[in-house]
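I am still getting used to C-alpha cells and would like to learn alongside you. Please make up or recall a protein chain and show it to me in full. Would you write everything just below, so we can both look at the same thing?
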Amino acid sequence: MAEGTIKIKLVRSPICTPQKHKNIVKSLGLHKINRVVERPDTPGFRGMVAKVPHLLEIVKE
C-alpha cells in the first residue's frame, strides 16, 4: 500500500451507536456530518474506518 493520504467523510450520525463507535469517529477528527478529513493512509487508520463502515465513507479523489 502506497504511503499517502485518504479522505474520510462522515455520512451518518453516531448518536445511536455504541460508545466504541463514537470514540472511533471522534478520534478520526470527525464532528459533523458531510465533513471530510484527510489522514495518512496507514493500516491503523484503514482499520479504524473498517470498524464503522456504516458511518464513514472513503472519498474518491
